[in-house]
Amino acid sequence: MPNFIDEIEQRTPAGIAAAIGRLIASGRLTPGDRLPTVRVLAGELGVSPATVSHAWQALSAVGLIVSRGRGGTFVQDAAPKWLPARSQSMIGTVGPARLDLSRGTPDPLLLPALGPALSRVSQRAVTPSYQDLPIIPELLKALRASWPYPVETITIVDGALDAISRSLDAVTRFGDRVIMENPSFPPFFDLLDQLGLERLPVAVDEHGIIPADFAAALKLGPAAVLLQPRAQNPTGASMTANRAEELARLLRNTSASADTIVIEDDHSAEISIAPDVSLGLWLPGRTLHVRSFSKSHGPDLRMAALGGPAALIDPIVSRRMLGPGWTSRMLQTILHDLLTNGESMAQVSEARRIYFARQRALADALTAFGLDVVQADGINTWLPVQNERDAMVRLAASGIRVAGGSPFLATEGGPAFIRVTAGALTDNVRPVAEALAAAAHPLDSTVHAVGARWS
C-alpha cells in the first residue's frame, strides 16, 4: 500500500481527499484495498480526526471509497456489471451532499402540477381495440401545431432514449457508422456500442456541431447523424438556424452521405430559451425528430414524440406493435392536458424563465471569478477543469457534488471537464461559483475556462 504521508501535500480535507483520489485513479490503490482509520491517519498527518473524516466523506460522496462500519473503510468495488459501460463510470456520484449538481434532472419544484390534470382525466382507461392509432388524435394535433417543421407523421414512444434506440434500429445495420457529438449523452455511446455501430465523434461549440468537423465525418459515409439541437447534454449548447442550415447543406452536397438519416433528440424543447430548430426544415425526408417531455413535464411520464417521413416512422410503429404495442393512452391524455391547459403552460413557461435566470447567474458569477464561460441553455453547464477527479473531490469536500466529464467524452486523454446541473441552483450562486472556480483551477484561478470548442 502506498505511503499516504508522502503523497499528501496539503493537509486539508480537500488536499487529503485529492491525494487519495490520485492514488485510486493511478491504480496504486485498487478496489477492495483497506484504508487507514481516521484516527491513525490523523495522527500520522498531525491533523484533527475531523479533518480526515471530512476527506473521507468527500471521497465517499464521489463514489471512490465505502465505509463498512467497524469493518473499516475500503476503496469502492466496481459498479454492477449489468449496467452499461458509461453508466458504470457514472455510478460514483452517490452518497450525501449538501448540494447535488450531478444529476442532470429537472428541479421537481418547477414541474407542472399533475393533480389538476389527473382530476380532468377519465377514471377509466378505455381502449376499444388493440389496433387503435398509437397516438390519440388530440395529442397528435397539438404536437403538429408545435413541431419545428411540417412533418409527415408523428407517433408516441416511451421516452427519448426509446425513440433514439428504435430509430437507430430502423436505419442502421451492424458495422454502420454514426456521427455523434463530442461530448454527448453517455447512454448514446453505450447504445451505439451495443448495436455494433462505429462512432464518428465531431466537436461542438456554443452553436452546435462544428461544420468543418462535420464535413470531414460525412465523407466516411455514415448511416446516421445523432445530434441534440437544443440545450445539448452536457454542454448546454443550442444550435442556431444558420448552423442547422449549414449542416443540412453539407449533408445534401456530400455524395458519400446521400442516404444519411438525421436523428435529433430535442429533449429540452419546452424549457429551452432557443427558438425551435431542426434540420428537418431543409431535409424533411431524411430527418427523425424526437421531442421528449421529461425535463419539462416530469421524468416519470416516460413519453416522447417521434416525427418524420412515413417511410421511416411506419416500420418503427409496426415493430413496436409486436412489443409494447403503444404508450398508455391515459398517459397521453394527461400529457395533452399539460400541453394545452393554460395553468400548466404558464408553469412550464415560468420554469423556462427560472432555468434561464439560474444559468445566467452562474455564468456571471463564474466570470467574476476569472472563468470565461458561455451561458448555457437548459439545465446543464460544461466546465473545463485541470483535473476531473481532483475537481470532483475538492467540490465534494465542500459538500458539492458534480458529474465527471469522462463518461460524456468519446475519446480519452484530452482536456478534462465536469458537468454542473445549474438548473438545481436555487440559492445564492456566488459561493458555489467560487468553489467551482477553485476546484477547476486550484493552482491558477485566473485561467480561462472555455475555449473555441467543447472537446
Please, could you describe this protein's structure?
The chain has 455 residues and is of the alpha/beta class. It is built from 17 helices and 15 strands. It folds into three domains: 72 residues, Winged helix-like DNA-binding domain superfamily/Winged helix DNA-binding domain (Arc Repressor Mutant, subunit A); 122 residues, Aspartate Aminotransferase, domain 1 (Alpha-Beta Complex); 208 residues, Aspartate Aminotransferase, domain 2, CATH 3.40.640.10. Strands 5-12-11-10-9-6-7-8 form an eight-stranded mixed sheet, with helices on both faces. Strands 4-14-15-13 form a four-stranded mixed sheet. A hairpin with a 5-residue loop joins strand 2 and strand 3. It is globular. It starts with a helix and ends in a 15-residue tail after the last helix.
Q: Uncertain runs with pLDDT below 50, 5 residues or more?
A: 445-453
Q: Could you say which overall geometry the principal axes of the C-alpha atoms support?
A: globular
User: What portion of the residues fall into strands of 2 or more residues?
Assistant: 5-15%
Fourth CATH level, the homologous superfamily of the largest domain: Type I PLP-dependent aspartate aminotransferase-like (Major domain)
Main beta-sheet annotation: 8 strands, mixed
Task: Give me the number of helical elements.
Answer: 17
Architecture per CATH nomenclature, i.e. the level-2 architecture of the largest domain = 3-Layer(aba) Sandwich
Distance between the termini: 36 Å
Q: Taking Cα atoms only, what radius of gyration do you get, to the nearest Å?
A: 24 Å
